Amino acid sequence: MGLLRTFTLVPLVVASLATRAGADESAAYPWLGEKRTETIESRIGPPPGWKRLPAPAGSFAAWLRGLPVKPGRPEVRLYNGRKKRNQEAHDLVLDVDVGKRDRQQCADAVMRLRAEYQRQAGEEAGICFRFTNGTPARWTDWRKGLRPRMSERKTPWHKATAPDRSYSSFRRYLDIDFSYAGSLSLSRELARVADPRRVEAGDVFIQGGSPGHAVVVVDVVADGKGRRAVLLAQSYMPAQDIHVLRNPKTPDNPWYLIEGDGPLATPEWDFPAGSLRRFTASGCPK
Q1: Whole-model pTM?
Q2: Which domain holds residue 223?
Q3: Which residues, in sequence order, are CB contacts of 268 under 8 Å at separation 6+?
Q4: Which pLDDT tens digit goes with each residue over 53-102?
């Protein structure tokens, strides 16, 4: 069943998020420069008869809905500036930097968004992702100056440098996660959603493996019948702009209707039944 697309008129948000010295540490989206920007919410409205689920101020859902987007529908670019080969998979391109190395791929983009939210929301103690070998990588350890000694079986952390909790240090921490964690490790950390019809913003469709893939739910709407539909965002391989996906079933409307625990077909990956997962309250659950 297709969902008609509409647009909402939501005021542009002003992102005065940087100074000449660097990112504003208290900003919701600190990677941005000082600019006016549209958001997912201002660019994509609910289908007729549908409403966005309530998203309390300061929640992960509200933060995802407010993610900045680039004007129009620009091309998706790779980390090296080249155009992605497939330019038919995306509806919008997020205004989120990729980095200059082939690191921020699919699961990495999910981790990036989750960690960025936690940091600005004052939930830094919960920022942790496990490397593929199972070692927990905690931001609170990194900011104290601890660094990992990489090995295949275990990765001990040791004191290596002065404490640094700046945003640039945080980004270096994420690069380590991108290098040594991925869809396989992230799929092990996330909790399975028993009833996908109760999907929430921040949930992740993920298939762990090599290769594997992950897409994150960035917004949710509901109709009067209790059904929910979602917007999905991804990065891919090679590392590229994070973008909101088109729906192959309804190319002019990016909302995905979630009717049960069946398979999910996205433009570049088909997820089997049982792929929906959710972040726990804190990272690296035991």
Answers
A1: 0.91
A2: 1-101+182-286
A3: 86, 89, 213, 234, 236
A4: 999 999 999 999 999 999 999 999 999 999 999 999 999 999 999 999 99
